[in-house]
């Protein structure tokens, strides 16, 4: 598919006002997207587990204006007006306007809330942007009712990507691939697709306990980080490695080989941070407690042979990943050994999920 296919024909229906609502989850990348071209086109493919508990609920109310003017919208978080969210949404509206030409015809109220604590250091951009994109697609579907579900999901992912790259992996579940690559049939730089191959039962209900090691504002945003991959001395090798890792992951997902799975995802996480540490300017997002946690996970794994591993996103928090069958002992370990390295002892128990849901 090309971008052009997301530009709608004249709409069939007239819709004057209404409300739509979606809840959309966050996701955690196993193979990381780090480095992008224009408009959130990724430099390399990525694959993620869709999460279940960490999600954003968005209610979009719309009413048609008398005359077509500039974008007209208000944003609320937990019932409170958020003028500081306006610029990001405005940029998003500008980017997607060509694909959603009705945007200037309506006045919008965007009411959003997250299940995870505000300022927990968990990025709400993936769940937030995907929830908004889905609401806008629900309005477009009313204007153009013959739209298929497959097209709806693709375009929702496509629009989410224009809001925040990794958001395009939050529409569906449980495993999503984003970025053109030879290994995965149907993969695209434009949107996320469901991983289309066999996945072993070992990965059903896979657990992700998110340790809130540092809840502060990140010193370097992911936008800045992505841009530092331009001219990065290891960029080309890193992009090639992501393709190789994706092809290596396929037999691992099929056979349920958890040792190889852990080795691959931990190396991916550390490679992401190695790219940050070797860019110019260089930076470190891990904190002392991130390393404490990693070392304890390694020691515990060695001592028990349980299949506990970690991944990191662009921050200090640690995602502890493990199979559901081993959850009891590993959660006990997290509570007794790892929680002390979290701010206020906080962590969030999540697991692999199946994507966004429309609410009534
Ligand atoms: O979607 P962004 O621009 O916030 O970038 C996300 C980057 C990582 O979380 C580090 C990796 C990924 O693939 O999600």
UniProtKB/TrEMBL annotation:
Q: Which UniProt keywords apply?
A: ATP-binding, Lipid biosynthesis, Lipid metabolism, Lyase, Nucleotide-binding
Which SUPFAM superfamilies does the UniProt record give? GHMP Kinase, C-terminal domain, Ribosomal protein S5 domain 2-like
Q: Which Pfam families match?
A: MDD_C, MVD-like_N
| Domain Mvd1 C-terminal span(s) in chain numbering | 210-341
Domain Diphosphomevalonate decarboxylase-like N-terminal: from-to ranges: 25-183
The molecular function terms in GO held by this entry are: ATP binding; carboxy-lyase activity
Q: Which GO terms describe its biological process?
A: isoprenoid biosynthetic process
**Protein name stated in the entry:** Diphosphomevalonate decarboxylase
The organism of origin for this protein: Formosa sediminum
